[in-house]
Structures are given as structure tokens and as C-alpha cells.
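ugh finaly. both done.
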Amino acid sequence: MDGKYPFHIKPEPWLIYNEKHNYTRGLFFMDGEEWLHFRRIMNKLLLKGDLSWIENSCDVASDLILSRVMPYSKSNSEFPNLESELYKWSMDVIVSILLGANIYSQSHKVLEPLVEKLASTVHLIF
């Protein structure tokens, strides 16, 4: 249990990168009162509005992973690496939310190699 303030594990490669390039961590890696301050700002945006835009973006990403995985379930082919697929799916969700479901649906073929590279890089970090 986190208590009033969460404590986030900070991956060492991210800490080194942030220090080298003088970047801050962002909400997911903030702790203490700093986290609470920015979380209250985000709460206003996320808890009191229509969140269908997030749901739509998640649907796009879910459709993509199903299109990649379902053919294997219907054949005798070797199933893809589920861990890698879930990393790809999580990056699809994030990019779809950032761009919007409609734009990501239309451009995911062009973005797919970049999202796959991002997913494999995040996978290496964690």
C-alpha cells in the first residue's frame, strides 16, 4: 500500500539518461508532494470528463494485438512471444492515446515499425 504518497521504482537506465540529458521524470516516477501536486492537476482532467477517447484508443490497440495473435490461435503455427506482444500492445495504447484513435487507426501501418522499436526498447529497460 502506497499511503498518501506513492513510491515509484525508478529504472536505473532512465535515471542515468535523465541525469545525462537534464530531464525530469514525469508523473509516473514522481514521489511525495511533487506527485500529489501534479496528480491533482491530472485528476481534474481524467476524473471529471468523458473518457471515451481513452476507451476508443484502447480499442484500436486491442484490435491490433488481436489481428496479430488470432491467426496463430487458428493454425498450428508457433505462437508469438506473448511478452513481446504485450509490450507492443502497451505502446500501441500509449501512441493511440497521444495521437487519437482515428489518426492512429489511419496511420498505424506507417508507425508500426517505430512503435515496435519503442516497445522493444522499453522491454530492454524493464
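ok and the 2nd:
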Amino acid sequence: MIVVAQSAADVQAAVAFAADRHRPVLVKTTGHQMVGTAHGAVVIATHRMNDVAIDAVGQTARVGAGAVWAEVVAEAAKEGLAPLNGSNPTVGVSGYTLGGGLSPTLGRSHGYAADHVHSLEVVTADGELRHVDAESEPELFWALRGGKGNFAVVTALEFALFPVARLYGGGIYFPGERMADVLRAWTAWHPATPETMVSSFAVLRLPPLPELPEPLRGAFSVALRFAYNGTAEDGERLIAPLRAVAPAILDTVRDMPYTEVASIHDEPTDPLPYYERGIMLREFPEQAQDRLIELVGPESDTTMWITELRALGGAWDREPAVPNAVATRGLPYSLLGVEVGPLSQEQQLKKSVAALLDGMEPWQSDRRLVNNLAPEEAADAAAIYGPERYERLAAVKKTYDPINMFRINHNVVPASSVLRLPGALSAAAQQPISG
């Protein structure tokens, strides 16, 4: 059954219906919440709950569960404010934020989107509509911000905005044959940059689609992406050493209004059949750089559409004033592999991404950014969060969702279902509980 909710009352009714029939609940705004199949579930679609209200004086936004980032960016910009949005304007605010929210525009200076949530309105498995903040429901508030959709259905959330009207940002694209030069230059450059500079490195093998810029159409290229919250003059000076590494085939870096920041990554906004997985790297020494070049560089036979290495650090490493369940602080890099193709090519797409991530295994951390996980990684929640954080999440789950209604996700199992063994979690802790 699919319920297209228009209000919190609709969500309460859907949860009560699911509880009466011992069915799981899956929430869908956009793809960030989706894991696995929904056979036998009650699917709650929240896209109609997309109201956005900006408090210019308090510098906050209150948004419905179905809002996407393009809607929030547009409304906030009218007041000279900006959110910690993602790279793609069509991504849903709620799923992105519940998974931490790694903003490629302002994140290095402000941290995760989850760090700046003031409150949430949610419907828990008992059908209750709750206002959740640090005072009213402190453990649930901690778990929701980083624990994904394991604990409740979010109907609205309130979070901080920042006084940013413009950025100096965009991408510099180089011939793919210069990958080694560009990668090594960027790796040496970015650690010394201020926290107001966010940057990433990408290897692109794009198809000959007419909507792509001509230099990138059907080409193998590497790209450096930048978002600098400062003057264009300072930004131009900062990235000058990278512009000098090799002749660019396309340079889109410029001063821009914040409403145009989606152009920095320039990701597709129309639906595509794709497969992606991401890992976090503990370090990226010269040996790891060599390995990445072997895996996706000019001599590789990979078909990977996008390989992205995002440099973290800064505020992403710092605990917020009100701590949350985000598990990836202190890890310096996020590595993402994206393949695109029809369902008939599913196994090949997965094999291609696995070759990249498995090849970087010597430098990867067990902890992961849950927004970049693949469906088949759902059983790894204990490793993804780390044992202490997972145990706390499982205790919150036991309190608010003891029957594991919200289990079609990267599942945290209620604590009562965990059989504690020395150094390990039992299989019961890794499997959804049936109704």
C-alpha cells in the first residue's frame, strides 16, 4: 500500500494502519531513504508535504518532510541566507539530513547538516506525533540526526541557515590523461586551504549526451570542484596553482549567487538508472594515490561514470554543541563510485563499483556515511556506526520502535533483539525482525 501523505495526521493514520497489520513502514521522499524492496510494506510518500518557511531574523528554516533542496535554497536566498544543502538540487532535505548531510558548499566550515538541526516533528511506531529536540526527547534527538530512518517518520524539521548570498565556485576539467598530475597537485594543495574552501576530485567517463557541454561529451576527463565562501579575488588566488597544473578543457569557476551552486557539480536532475556505493578513507598516501590511478586512470579498463574523492576535515571533524549519531568524524576523505545503466546490467554495474572500492580496501575505514551506502550493505550497520554508537542506537530503537517497524533501511535492530557475544553481534542483530 502506498500512502501519499499531505499532513502529519495522514502519516499517523498510515503508521497506525501498518501497526494493526504488522507491516513494516518505508518512507520515500527521494532516493536517500530507499533500501531494498518494499513488498508487504506500507510506503509513505511525503513529496506533497513540501512547505518551506524561512525565519530571516532567527536564520532558520522549517520545512516539511517532502521538501527538496532546490526549494529551500530558493526561499532562503530571498533573505540572503543559505542552508547546508547537497550537491544535487533534487535531493530531499529529510533523508539527506537524517543521514548526516555532507554539504559540498559550506560543510567544511560548518559541519554536517545534522549538526544544525534545532528540532524535528516525527511520528513514532506507536502513532504518536512528537516534537523532538535536545530538551524534550534527548536520546531520540541524538539518534535521529545521523541514524537515518530507523526511529520514526519525520513530518517536519527546523534547522539553521547561514548568511551566505554568493560563492566563488565551479569546476575545472582537465584531459583524463593528466589524472596523475592533477590528483597529486590537489592532494598536496587542499590540506593548507582555509575551512571556507571545500574541494573535491573527480574522474569522469561521460556518455555522448547532447545536454553535456561539448568538451565533456563522450570524453574521459578529470575535474576539480570548488566552493569558496570568500571573495572572488581570494578564491582565484587560492586555486591559481591548480589552474597551472595542466591546460583545462573547461573552466566554470566563477563568482555566483548561492542559488546557482548546483552548477558546481552539475549533476543530472532527471531520473537515471544508477548504482553507487561509497566508503571513507582513513588516509590517502602516495601508495593510495597510485592505486586509484591504476583503478580508474588512463590505463584502466573501468567503465565507471563518476569516481569522486571529497576532502573533509575542518568542522566535519568537530562534535557539534549538541552531539548526534554521525559516525564519520575524523575521517579525511569520502570516496564514491557511480555507475549508470539499465537493470539488465545490474551485476556488471555492481562489479565495476566493487572493483574500485575493494581496490582501495587497505586505506578504508569500517565507518561509513550512511547516505552513500548500497542496499546490500544494510546488514553492516554495527560496523558502519562502530560498536559503542550502535549499542546506543539500538537502545533508542528499543524505546521508540521495539517491533522494528522501520526496518527497510540500513537497519538498527532493537536492543532486546541483540544477542551479545564477545567481540561480535549475532545474526539476529543483523536481520530485520518479522511482524
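summary for the 2nd one i guess: The chain has two domains: 2-160, 166-374.
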